[in-house]
Design brief:
heterodimer; A: alpha/beta; four-stranded antiparallel beta sheet; B: 2 domains; 12 helices; 10 strands
Chain lengths: 274, 281
């Protein structure tokens, strides 16, 4: 679906944000791109919808180089939800905001109405349909931005830091929602620092540091490798931290979520005859 | 004396369909480290805007009830007077930064107070040092990453040396290591300098170890108010879907499954320690 081949990217200021990145994301995959501030995560995903073009190397989306298609055209396939919703929102009402891109893509009015209502429902925003996005809280604005992209049903959805400003319940909704999108065959790419969120989602994790990919694999493997996590300025999930402290008692150190932790602890107690 | 004392506070934004906070009464003592949490849209940010006088001095709309912050009635004092005592770090640093260099942004508040140049320099240096951005001094804030910007925003509030500091999800844009470092800075401000800290936060896994008081809001009202262990352990907190630390969740799950456990860990270190004791039995 997305093929990144030896991409380098230098911003006009001379800062090299990507120093040779190669990555293939298959159709229907769920990938979390993690790493410290300034590691190049956002720069990388901005290449996926052609917002940025590589200084060197190529990015193929559905087999076509992003240099050969307009961002407007790519956007139909690759939807991008920005980290800061204020970079995306500008209409007078939430309803208009979500309808905007659909109008641009030339959907018929009747379909627009259906899709907007569908997206509002999906993200629990129905009560705000006539509200100005700027009257909403940070977390609510974030959901409006997400709704506006999902409304046109892109094949690939990129979410840049989707959990920022979201409370626990919304994160749980978001998680179920991503799993559902992914289950419907959509490719989902999430840029995030939120280790606890990733620990509950179990995606493929691509770890970046200083413009390069330093690790790529299962969440369970990468989030529990303290050499990797410290290199990428992330903290292992709280459950992993607890288990790292029990390592000398023979506990595994690659435990990332609560239910697995429970299972491991009970197994231990049963084995030791209690 | 209380740092913050609210009695029956109710506020609606102009044009709002319902009050954003309703009948809120609370008391925060001087020197406390308070976490204020609750579902998105529950009124956390609104109440922070009351604490530093942005409501009712900047945002109009109707404020009812009584609010004293740092000994002052917020309705009777202009924002610039409140700002000397109560610092607010916004959720989104871009809403706060505007100068052409980091140094100028951090100095801005102090210049407005008419402070002597040498003193400004000293305070700016100190604030940049504490937040770990000395090397960004000459850079333009808008060119920095989200995390770096948040540090600049924190530094500019720190420089004012207020009695009370309010942080509205200050680590949203930071990577976890960066977030932890900021929480430690905030903790130092609280424990070493005695600044009263009010931290609005969803990421309780990282933050709860520092707090001695947790307030949970929902739909504009205070639902729970007390000591962290009690609050996190309450059924109400769980039903509300507050981001209870994973250590607490694990503990509860073990208890529900018949393991007799005492205490309630709020951090991973505590959970490890408690578990070791259980496993040794």
């Amino acid at each position: 679906m997305i093929e990144v081949k030896d991409v380098r990217f230098t911003y006009p200021t001379g800062v090299e944000a990507l120093s040779g990145v190669s990555l293939t994301i298959e159709e229907g995959e769920f990938v979390a791109i993690m790493g410290q501030n300034g590691a190049g995560k956002t720069t990388l995903v901005k290449h996926f919808n052609g917002l940025l073009k590589p200084t060197k190397g190529t990015v193929l989306v559905d087999g076509v180089s992003t240099r050969d298609v307009s961002v407007a055209k790519l956007a139909r396939t690759v939807g991008f939800v920005f980290q800061n919703p204020d970079h995306q929102l500008f209409c007078e009402t939430v309803w208009e905001e979500i309808a905007f891109a659909l109008r641009n893509f030339g959907f018929e009015e009747a379909i627009i109405e259906k899709r907007v209502d569908w997206a509002l429902n999906l993200l629990d925003l129905i009560e705000y349909r006539q509200t100005s996005p700027f009257m909403l809280s940070g977390g609510e604005r974030k959901r409006v931005a997400l709704a506006s992209v999902l409304a046109w049903d892109p094949k690939v959805v990129i979410l840049d830091e989707p959990t920022i400003g979201q409370d626990h319940r919304q994160k749980e909704n978001l998680r179920q929602f991503i799993v559902q999108l992914n289950g419907q065959g959509k490719t989902v790419v999430v840029v995030t620092h939120d280790v606890e969120f990733v620990a509950e989602c179990h995606p493929r994790v691509v770890l970046m540091s200083a413009g390069k990919i330093v690790a790529d694999g299962e969440a369970k493997k990468i989030l529990t490798d303290t050499t990797l996590t410290s290199m990428a300025s992330i903290v292992p999930p709280q459950i992993t931290q607890i288990f790292l402290g029990l390592n000398d008692l023979g506990f595994p150190s690659d435990v990332i979520d609560v239910s697995e932790a429970k299972r491991v602890l009970f197994d231990y107690l049963v084995r030791s005859g209690r | 004396m209380a740092a913050v004392q609210a009695k029956a506070l109710t506020y609606s934004y102009p044009g709002g369909t319902r009050p954003s906070i309703r009948d809120v009464s609370l008391s925060i003592e001087r020197g406390e480290f308070v976490i204020l949490t609750g579902p998105s849209g529950c009124g956390k940010t609104t109440i922070c805007r009351c604490f530093n006088g942005l409501i009712p001095n900047f945002y109009t709309g109707e404020l009812k009830g009584e609010l004293r912050v740092a000994g002052l009635n917020v309705s009777e004092h202009p924002i610039y007077e409140m700002a000397k005592r109560v610092g607010l770090v916004f959720q989104n640093p871009e809403n706060q930064l505007f100068a052409l260099s980091v140094e100028k942004d951090v100095a801005f508040g102090l210049e407005n107070l008419g402070m002597p140049r040498d003193q400004i320099r000293e305070r700016v240096d100190q604030a940049l040092k504490i937040t770990g951005i000395e090397e960004l001094r000459e850079r333009a804030p808008h060119e920095l990453s989200g995390g770096q910007q948040q540090r600049v925003a924190i530094a500019s509030v720190l420089a004012m040396q207020p009695e009370i500091m309010i942080f509205d999800e200050p680590t949203s844009f930071l990577d976890p290591v960066g977030a932890q470092r900021i929480f430690e800075v905030i903790n130092d401000l609280n424990k070493k300098l005695g600044i009263t800290v009010i931290l609005v936060e969803h990421r309780l896994d990282l933050a709860s170890r520092y707090a001695d008081h947790v307030i949970i809001m929902d739909a504009g009202q205070i639902i729970l108010d007390g000591e962290p262990r009690e609050v996190f352990n309450s059924e109400t907190a769980r039903l509300l879907g507050v981001g209870i630390p994973k250590a607490v969740n694990l503990w509860r799950l073990l208890q529900e499954n018949g393991l007799v456990l005492e205490g309630m860990p709020v951090s991973s270190e505590e959970a490890t320690r408690f578990l070791r004791e259980v496993l040794k039995r």
